[in-house]
Design brief:
alpha+beta, Alpha-Beta Plaits, 2 domains, four-stranded antiparallel beta sheet, 7 helices, 16% strand, elongated
């Protein structure tokens, strides 16, 4: 994101020095905490800031992305009954309950995702990311906690997502008398605004302006794609009413890795793309 911010700042400086009259205003919003609670984006929206279009500078190799899936981080707690490992039938194994839940999700829930695939951003997804449970090998685990990444599509809500997962948990409880379960959001994963999906129409003016910028700077519009991760753009669009695209320097494939970096030529290209997009969108011509 430092690369995208540098490119945006350079574009702002170029526009300010151009002396060209414009019908609109260009604003740079460098907000905090997108990785967790999106505190900066929420504050911006609640301050009644408004714009007619926005660009999120996440790494897309400077390609235009029209949307992405929504995101929920969920925690599943399983509580059983401890017993000696030599007499496992005397207890209720919480790890066994969690394992059964994962299997039901794989066999019953995931096939349904294909049926509700969105034309732009594809089907929902579910990934179990962590598991913690038990005390030691010779004790039946009395507690186990799973966390999961659940990506959503338009039409899904937090209530509907939790509803179908609760159905699976209820099935596990019925199969394992004495086991109790719970589902909740991972603490700190969201502030107040639901991390919904983002979709922006191909004919929206901000898309058309960015497409023209791609023609001028890169020689071709390129593919209008989707972004694999979640961004603050969903909050800007849903709760701020601001049509938003994702376009920025860098490759998501190396993000959050020891090789994370952004090529200088991509930063320079992004600066030109942002400046020309703003010129087309706001009339700096």
């Amino acid at each position: 994101m430092k690369g995208a911010l540098a490119a945006m700042a350079a574009a702002m400086a170029a526009l300010a020095k151009s002396g060209l009259p414009g019908r609109g205003r260009v604003t740079l919003a460098a907000v905090i905490a997108e990785e967790m609670e999106s505190l900066g984006a929420e504050h911006l929206i609640k301050s009644e800031f408004h714009a007619d279009g926005a660009i999120i500078g996440e790494p897309t190799l400077n390609q235009i992305c029209l949307g992405h899936k929504g995101l929920e981080w969920l925690e599943f707690e399983f509580r059983g009954r401890a017993a000696h490992g030599g007499t496992p039938d005397a207890g209720v194994n919480a790890i066994g309950g969690a394992s059964r839940f994962v299997e039901l999700a794989r066999t019953q829930l995931l096939p349904r995702f294909e049926e509700r695939a969105d034309p732009l951003i594809g089907p929902p997804t579910l990934n179990f990311g962590t598991i913690q449970g038990g005390d030691q090998p010779s004790t039946v685990a009395a507690r186990c906690v799973l966390t999961a990444d659940r990506r959503s599509v338009p039409g899904e809500t937090f209530e509907s997502i939790c509803g179908e997962l609760k159905d699976l948990l209820t099935q596990v409880e019925s199969e394992m008398p004495g086991l109790t379960t719970m589902i909740r959001r991972v603490p700190g994963g969201m502030a107040t605004m639901e991390h919904v999906a983002l979709e922006t129409a191909e004919e929206d003016p901000v898309v058309e302006a960015a497409s023209e910028a791609r023609r001028q700077v890169c020689g071709a519009v390129g593919e209008l794609g989707t972004f694999p991760a979640w961004t603050d753009g969903a909050l800007l669009a849903r709760f701020g009413g601001i049509p938003t695209i994702v376009m920025g320097p860098g490759d998501l494939a190396v993000a959050h890795s020891p090789r994370e970096s952004v090529a200088v030529d991509q930063v320079l290209e992004a600066a030109r793309l942002y400046a020309v997009t703003a010129s087309e969108f706001c009339g700096y011509r």
